[in-house]
Amino acid sequence: MLHLDHTIVPAHDQDESARFIARMLGLTFDGRWGHFSPVHVDEHLSLDFDTRPGDFKHSHYAFLASDEEFDAILDRVKAEGIPFGSGPRIQDDMEINHEHQGRGFYFRDTNDGHSWEIITHTYV
To answer: Phi and psi at residue 102, in whole multiples of 5°?
Structure first.
């Protein structure tokens, strides 16, 4: 079976960014591995944060979560006072969506401006 193994996430400070997203998603950051700061999402995927100087293009990362995971992530985002929103172009209305027979929300990380999406039902 084919799986995405890792993706590189550009960051201004890779350790700070890895700690942030691990905290928001309820994951663990165990420190650097070689040049990267990986956050293991599951047995198949890691987000490998990499410090990049200057400006870089912001990316979008979407995660399919159980209802319990969704609630826990949303609670952590709220607890840190991070704006969130119901759509990719509305990431600060402090609402969730109920699209595609599930729930979803978006937030931007405070370090690098990447867009993180959490959904309970896939779109496809």
So the answer is: -150, -155
